[in-house]
TrEMBL record:
One of its GO terms (biological process) is terpenoid biosynthetic process. Binds 1 [4Fe-4S] cluster. Its cofactor is [4Fe-4S] cluster. GO terms for molecular function: 4 iron, 4 sulfur cluster binding; 4-hydroxy-3-methylbut-2-en-1-yl diphosphate synthase activity (ferredoxin); 4-hydroxy-3-methylbut-2-enyl-diphosphate synthase activity (flavodoxin); iron ion binding. The gene is ispG. This is 4-hydroxy-3-methylbut-2-en-1-yl diphosphate synthase (flavodoxin). The lineage of its organism: Bacteria, Pseudomonadati, Pseudomonadota, Gammaproteobacteria, Alteromonadales. Gene3D superfamilies: Dihydropteroate synthase-like, Sulfite Reductase Hemoprotein, domain 1. Residues 12-251 form the IspG TIM-barrel domain. Converts 2C-methyl-D-erythritol 2,4-cyclodiphosphate (ME-2,4cPP) into 1-hydroxy-2-methyl-2-(E)-butenyl 4-diphosphate. The keyword Cytoplasm does not apply. Residues 266-354 form the IspG C-terminal domain. It catalyses: (2E)-4-hydroxy-3-methylbut-2-enyl diphosphate + oxidized [flavodoxin] + H2O + 2 H(+) = 2-C-methyl-D-erythritol 2,4-cyclic diphosphate + reduced [flavodoxin]. Pathway: Isoprenoid biosynthesis; isopentenyl diphosphate biosynthesis via DXP pathway; isopentenyl diphosphate from 1-deoxy-D-xylulose 5-phosphate: step 5/6.
């Protein structure tokens, strides 16, 4: 594997969302947001657990009403992953959910009214030792900023964000992270670039309202890929009009593609063509689904024929190269004597990948410092 990774991460302040570090030298975290009604505790807990299962580091839950705050209390008792309570205007909800164990408040201090209210929220965050996320969105900029810039521009988004930052500075509160999201890739990217030069707090990346699964994933990969490759970003959320579980998977896929953070299997597969010796597409799809529980980082190449199979297998932890009726199988780049029957390829590969993952995991454990 070509191992060089030229990304130099921007230095940021480390904050904690529950026990998950964000910023500084902490791994870039992947988060999502529930889309169930928060007052439906059972459905929301089930969705959070599904997100935990695919590796979500942090989950955001919308808390629009006092009833939702009461539900948040019950939800928080039933899940392990840190929860960010998303509040927009009513500062009393922030005070309530902080008492109920929220691990972070997503609230813009400039939107909650007079200084007494802001002071109450900041004091409450300090007392409960929880951070705040300032979230600016190109679609909901303040009226006077829109009057000044006429349309959402990077300068407009950053000015809006800095207003909230300045308020928290005034109240001597530095435990916060900031997002400046936009649905336009270039607008979001330039906004984050500019903001990254002005504050040392961690940045929460996202292309907001990115669209449906396919287009949204592509847009997010391009936007976040540009920023992450410049070292900008400490946590991210992929916003998709799709199951939130997909947001986590796409988030990890982006980090994996940039070799920033690995989780689970990185499948290298050819698109297949008439040379394929087995059904590459169905094999890869079946394996991806069956092996979702594996969190060990490893490269597995599934290639339909000898044109590219041996080359990819050489740089994979486990490789398969399609052959006539039986396919060649590689471990750590070495061709094994055993060949795998093409008729039983999925079951056989699943077993072998699981065995290899256990071995890689063992090696990782022995290499970890005490
Ligand atoms: S590796 Fe072989 S089967 Fe796969 S696309 Fe290339 S030529 Fe076709």
């Amino acid at each position: 594997m070509f191992s060089e990774n030229p990304i130099i991460r921007r230095k940021t302040k480390k904050i904690y969302v529950g026990d998950v570090a964000v910023g500084g030298d902490a791994p870039i975290t992947v988060q999502s947001m529930t889309n169930t009604r928060t007052t439906d505790v059972e459905a929301t807990v089930a969705q959070i657990k599904a997100l935990e299962n695919v590796g979500a580091d942090i989950v955001r839950v919308s808390v629009p009403t006092i009833d939702a705050a009461e539900a948040f209390k019950l939800i928080k008792q039933q899940v392990n992953v840190p929860l960010v309570a998303d509040i927009h205007f009513d500062y009393r909800i922030a005070l309530q959910v902080a008492q109920y164990g929220a691990d972070c408040l997503r609230i813009n201090p400039g939107n909650i009214g007079n200084e007494t209210r802001i002071q109450a929220v900041v004091d409450c965050a300090k007392d409960n030792n929880i951070p705040i996320r300032i979230g600016v969105n190109g679609g909901s900029l303040e009226k006077d900023i829109m009057d000044k810039y006429h349309e959402p521009t990077p300068e407009a988004l950053v000015e809006s964000a800095m207003r909230h930052v300045d308020i928290l500075d005034k109240f001597n509160f530095d435990q916060f992270k900031v997002s400046v999201k936009a649905s336009d890739v270039f607008l979001a990217v330039e906004s984050y670039r500019q903001l990254s030069k002005q504050i040392e707090q961690p940045l929460h990346l996202g292309i907001t309202e990115a669209g449906g699964f396919r287009a949204g994933a592509v847009k997010s990969a391009i936007g976040l890929g540009m920023l992450l490759s410049e070292g900008i970003g400490d946590t991210l959320r992929i916003s998709l009009a799709a199951n939130p579980v997909e947001e986590i998977k796409v988030g990890f896929d982006i980090l994996k593609s940039l070799r920033i953070r690995s989780r689970g299997i990185n499948f290298i597969a050819c698109p297949s063509c008439s040379r394929q010796e087995f059904d590459v597409i169905n094999t890869v799809n079946a394996l991806e689904e069956r092996l979702e529980d594996i969190i060990t980082p490893m490269d597995v190449s599934i290639i339909g024929c000898v044109v590219n199979g041996p080359g990819e297998a050489l740089v994979s932890d486990l490789g398969l190269t399609g052959g006539n009726r039986k396919s060649g199988y590689y471990l750590d780049g070495s061709r094994q004597k055993e060949r795998i029957d093409n008729d039983d390829i999925v079951d056989q590969l699943e077993k072998k990948i699981r065995a290899k993952a256990a071995q890689v995991q063992q090696t990782i454990a022995t290499l970890k410092p005490e």
